[in-house]
């Protein structure tokens, strides 16, 4: 389309030369045009509300805590059977992809602001008793399961309640900063 339009404008402006793909390549480099991948939902965010929250209310709340008492938690999906989309290979040999495996687990990661305390990972899978854990006596993570391997409000609240009652906090009061997600219900706790 770009090549067709460039030829149209060249003819309209009185240029006789036929525009080639090399011109398009140089045009893209000149104006920093390339392949991109859209991510996130920034189009749906009201930036004025975000600025009011971060510069007002959030700042007031966090000013009451030391950096070691401000925690952040977020979930990420780990597609542990999925192969990378791009890789290295031999030129001239054909490589065919199949349907990508979408087997996933969800991992909740949390740490404090100064990095001195990283909470144990909270992993959510589909299997109640995964075969891989058959002879494992103790996992280095907290593991639970549900049908879709997603975080739910009940699981998140249970995780927060356990954190609230742990000796790890030893009477400290902490601020837990999380994103605006339906799985993150607002709860009132004594230490969190």
Distance, first to last CA: 56 Å
Strands ordered across the widest β-sheet: 4-3-2-1-5
Helix content: 25-40%
Order of helices and strands: HHHEEEEHE
Number of strands: 5
Gyration radius from CA atoms, angstroms = 26 Å
What overall geometry do the principal axes of the alpha carbons give? flat
- Give the helix tally: 4
Strand composition percent = 5-15%
Structural class based on helices, strands and sheet pairing: alpha/beta
Largest sheet: 5 strands, mixed
Unreliable sequence segments: none
Name the average pLDDT: 84
Question: How many discrete structural domains?
Answer: 2
Short characterization:
The protein contains 4 helices and 5 strands; from the N terminus they run H-H-H-E-E-E-E-H-E.
Q: What would you note in describing this structure?
A:
This protein has helices at about 1-10, 20-30, 45-60, 155-165, and strands spanning about 70-80, 105-110, 120-125, 140-145, 175. With about 190 residues, the chain is α/β, with parallel strands linked by helices. The chain has 2 domains: about 1-35, no CATH class; about 65-80 and about 100-190, no CATH class. The mean pLDDT is about 85.
Provide the descriptors you would attach to this structure in a database record:
192 residues, alpha/beta
Outline the secondary-structure elements.
Layout: H1 2-12, H2 21-30, H3 47-62, E1 70-78, E2 105-112, E3 122-125, E4 142-145, H4 153-165, E5 175-177
């Amino acid at each position: 389309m770009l090549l067709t339009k460039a030829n149209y404008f060249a003819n309209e402006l009185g240029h006789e030369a036929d525009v080639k793909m090399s011109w398009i390549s140089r045009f893209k480099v000149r104006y920093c045009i390339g392949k991109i991948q859209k991510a996130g939902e920034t189009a749906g965010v009201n930036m004025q509300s975000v600025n009011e929250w971060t510069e007002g209310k959030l700042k007031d709340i966090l000013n009451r805590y030391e950096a070691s008492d401000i925690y952040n938690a977020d979930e990420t999906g780990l597609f542990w059977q999925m192969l990378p989309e791009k890789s290295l290979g031999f030129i001239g040999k054909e490589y065919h992809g199949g349907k990508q495996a979408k087997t996933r687990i969800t991992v909740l990661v949390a740490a404090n602001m100064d990095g001195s305390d990283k909470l144990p990972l909270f992993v959510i899978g589909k299997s109640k008793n995964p075969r891989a854990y058959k002879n494992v006596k103790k996992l280095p993570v907290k593991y639970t399961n549900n049908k879709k391997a997603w975080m739910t409000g009940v699981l998140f609240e249970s995780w927060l309640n356990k954190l609230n009652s742990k000796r790890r906090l030893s009477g400290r009061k902490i601020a837990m900063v999380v994103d605006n997600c339906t799985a993150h219900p607002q709860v009132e706790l004594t230490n969190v």
